[in-house]
Amino acid sequence: MRIETTTIEGILKITPARHGDHRGYFSEVFKDGWFRENAANVTFVQDNESLSAQAGTLRGLHFQTPPFAQGKLVRCLQGAILDVVVDIRQGSPTFGQWLGEELTPYNGAQLWVPAGFAHGFVTLAPNSVISYKVTAPYSPEHDRGVLWNDPDIGIRWPVQEADAVLSDKDRKLPKLADIPGHFQFSAQ
C-alpha cells in the first residue's frame, strides 16, 4: 500500500497495490495491522455504503460530535467522486481549509479522514457507489454538518449550485463560523 500525506495534517491518501494479469487484478484494500501502524491506531466498527444515482449528487459536509466522533476511510467502488474534507479543529493552522481528492475504482485511492473534519463528496458520474469504514456508529443526536457552499471555506465544487442534487438537510446546514468548537487541534 502506498500512503501519501496531504496539505492538511492528518488527512492521508492511501492507494492499495494491485496485482494484475490477463484475468484482472487482486488487491488487499484494508489490513488492520498495517493501517494501525502506518495511518491511525483506530478500530473500525461499521462499514457503510451509499449509491448516488445522479451525477452531481452532493452529500455533506457531515461530522459527528464526541463521544461519537467518526474517523472515516472512504473509497469509491463504482463511478467517480470528488471527496472533500474541511478542517474544523479549533486552533489548527489549517482550520477552515479544505482539500479534495478524486476517488474512482480505477485509481483505487482511499482517503483517511480522522475525527475533527467535516466530510462530503460530489458524484462525478451516475450510479456512483461509495464505501466507507467508520470508527463510531451513527448517532442522530451527535450528527452535525457545515454548509456545503459556505463562502468562507470556498470549496471549488465541480457542480453549479443550481445543478447540485442535495438533501433538504444538507441545504440547511450552518456555516462554519456558526458552529461551536467541537474539536481542538493538538500537534502530533
SSE blueprint and pairings:
Elements: E1 2-5, E2 12-15, E3 19-21, E4 24-26, H1 32-38, E5 46-52, E6 58-64, E7 72-78, E8 81-87, E9 89-90, E10 98-103, E11 110-113, E12 117-123, E13 128-134, E14 143-145, H2 168-171, E15 183-184
Parallel strand pairs: 9-15
Antiparallel strand pairs: 1-2, 2-11, 3-4, 5-13, 6-12, 6-14, 7-11, 7-13, 8-10, 8-12
The overall strand count is: 15
Q: What is the averaged pLDDT score? A: 96
Sketch the topology as an H/E string, one letter per element: EEEEHEEEEEEEEEEHE
Percent in strands = 35-45%
Number of helices: 2
Plain-language structure description:
The protein is mostly beta strands and about 190 residues long. The protein contains two helices and 15 strands. The protein has helices spanning about 30-40, 170, and strands at about 1-5, 10-15, 20, 25, 45-50, 60-65, 70-80, 80-85, 90, 100-105, 110-115, 115-125, 130-135, 145, 185. The strands form four sheets. Strands 1-2-11-7-13-5 form a six-stranded antiparallel β-sheet, with no helix packed on it. β1 (about 1-5) and β2 form a beta hairpin. The longest helix is centred in the first third of the chain and has 7 residues, at about 30-40. The radius of gyration is 16 Å and the shape is globular. The model has no long low-confidence stretch (mean pLDDT about 95).
Task: Give a brief outline of the structure.
The chain is mostly beta strands.
Keywords:
188 residues; mainly beta; 5-stranded antiparallel sheet; 6% helix; 39% strand; globular
